[in-house]
Amino acid sequence: MAAGQNQRNRKNNSMLTKTGKARLGPLNMTQLNKLLESSTKPKEKDKIRRELVKRAPSAA
Question: What is the Cα–Cα distance from 35 to 8, expressed in whole angstroms?
Fold first, then answer.
């Protein structure tokens, strides 16, 4: 099989990007917290934390 043939084999999933990374937009706060706990990569954790801060209701 030649390189770049993944598009034929890939199933369409709206929760994943083309490269297989999870989309954070449609997740709710509890799902994001669960994802943060299960994540091991610092880059992914930072991304999830930023999304949580963005969605957190402001105290002001």
Answer: 29
The torsion of the CA quartet 26, 10, 4, 19, rounded to 10 degrees, works out to 20
pLDDT digits (tens, 9 = 90+) for 11-25: 788 888 888 788 888
The residues near 52 (Cβ < 8 Å, ≥ 6 apart) are 29, 32, 33, 36
Q: What is the pLDDT of residue 24?
A: 83
Instruction: Measure the CA–CA gap between 44 and 42, rounded to whole angstroms.
Output: 5
Residue in the block written with tokens 């954790």: 45
Question: Is the torsion defined by CA of 17, 18, 20, 21 positive or negative?
Answer: negative
